[in-house]
Amino acid sequence: MSSGAPGAPKAYVIGAGLAGLSAATVLAARGVSVALIEGAPQAGGRCRSYFDAAMGGVIDNGNHLVLSGNRAVQDYLSRIGAKNALAGPPCAEFAFVDLQDGARWTLRPNEGGVPYWVGRKQRRVPGTTATDYMKYAPLMWAGRKARIDVVVKDRGPLWRRLMQPFLLAALNTAPEESSAALAGAILRETLAKGGRFYRPRIAHPTLAAAFVDPALRYLGEKGASVRLSTRLRGLTLGPRAAMALDVPDATLPVSARDVVVMAVPPWQAAELVPGLTVPDNFRAIVNAHFKMAAPPGTPPILGVIGGTAEWIFAFDDRISVTVSGADAIVDQDRETLATRIWADVAEALDITAPMPAWQIVKEKRATFAATPQQDARRPVAKTRWRNLFLAGDWTQTGLPATIEGALRSGETAAALALRHLSL
Q1: Taking the domains of the chain in order of start, what are their residue ranges?
Q2: Looking at residue 3, what is its pLDDT?
Q3: pLDDT of 326-365, one tens digit each?
Q4: What confidence score (pLDDT) does residue 204 get?
Q5: Strand 259-262 relative to strand 282-290: parallel, antiparallel, unpaired?
Q6: pTM value?
Q7: For the segment 213-267, what is each residue's pLDDT rounded down to a tens digit?
Q8: Confidence of residue 156 (pLDDT cuts 50, 70, 90)
Q9: HEC states along the chain?
Q10: Taking Cα atoms as reference points, which of 333, 324, 391 lies closest to residue 363?
Q11: CATH code that applies to domain 10-47+207-280+372-421
């Protein structure tokens, strides 16, 4: 499986989600012989695209929004030759509709770090004052044990019409019970830096086309091997190092000079690595896809307040909806969910047509619960085995479970692996 010279150290990356792809591409860029092993028949993990018969076309499993200030996203896309794979407006702009009273508005922050926009009524959330926004500043230096509901008491218009939906989308956990420190990390890297750091960006035309296919091409060009549909069944660990990988058709020896990056879901990592503490409480996401082009003038992303639908994404050939922290609805019948969500879409976009062809995608364990207790269970990338490292948005990245966090975790694991390889 080695792509380098005989006897050269190898890097085994287990898992081809974004964390694994990040680690593999960093290592390949440094000339390391990489073997990428993935249990599923396709790469991408929870960030994947596929042909859906009900929709008659390719859809993403979910809608993954990134922001212009996501440093690891930009580095990853540059590395794999996909710098232009994201689409979005030239400035930070967020449209909203409140289904309870029909109010519509567009949030228009200024580009710079001094938030003068909050002092202008026409640019901020209706019903809010400039001082309302300052109430969230304490989140940026909150301790790791603090919950958002303890640090911020506001439950007025700003909470309901911006901060609650924003934090729910970022944390995939009810903000009231979520980690103030994780929320603060998001705020420090986006809202606190100015609009140029949180221009919304969507993968174009699909998640796979932006994040996965270019990475696989890049790895192929670098001589890496990629094995799909190959689940790691076991890991042989010695006192100080990983020694072998057990896959369905072989036992792969791992020398003390080789490295292993474990970029699998936390529950799988806990089965493979003795004594590993990982998050064990998760939150669901529900995505709905409708085979209809949005009406002319529909914003690319529309935040929905007061409905089941939370974020509506307008694509050329479909309308997609994301519901975060969806544990309360994830077990509902799929047609019931589609009908319920379509009613919100029709109202939000002023559509009178009947519900078109649709698909519901459920991820019951989409992310770890972003509570202080679960955050404390996240392990660091380094293990007590000197050639074994962990990657995944569930590791201790300082961020919630996001694309940015997954890619950073891959960078961290790759940096540790490169240090070991240089010894």
Answers
A1: 10-47+207-280+372-421, 94-197
A2: 42
A3: 999 999 999 999 999 999 999 999 999 999 999 999 999 9
A4: 84
A5: unpaired
A6: 0.96
A7: 999 999 999 999 999 999 999 999 999 999 999 999 999 999 999 999 999 999 9
A8: very high
A9: CCCCCCCCCEEEEECCEHHHHHHHHHHHHCCCEEEEECCCCCCECCCCEEEECCCCEEEECCCCEEECCCHHHHHHHHHCCCCCCEECCCCCCEEEEECCCCCEEEECCCCCCCCHHHHCCCCCCCCCCHHHHHCCHHHHHCCCCCEHHHHCCCCCHHHHHHHHHHHHHHHCCCHHHCEHHHHHHHHHHCHHHCHHHCCEEEECCCHHHHHHHHHHHHHHHCCCEEECCCCCCEEEECCCCEEEEEECCEEEECCCCCEEEECCCHHHHHHHCCCCCCCCCEEEEEEEEECCCCCCCCCCEEEEECCCCCEEEECCCCEEEEECCCCCCCCCCHHHHHHHHHHHHHHHHCCCCCCCCEEEEEEEEEEECCCHHHHCCCCCCECCCCCEEECCCCCCCCCCCCHHHHHHHHHHHHHHHHHHHCC
A10: 324
A11: 3.50.50.60
Q: What are the pLDDT digits (tens) for 392-408?
A: 999 999 999 999 999 99
Q: How far is residue 35's CA from residue 30's CA, in Å, rounded to a whole number?
A: 14
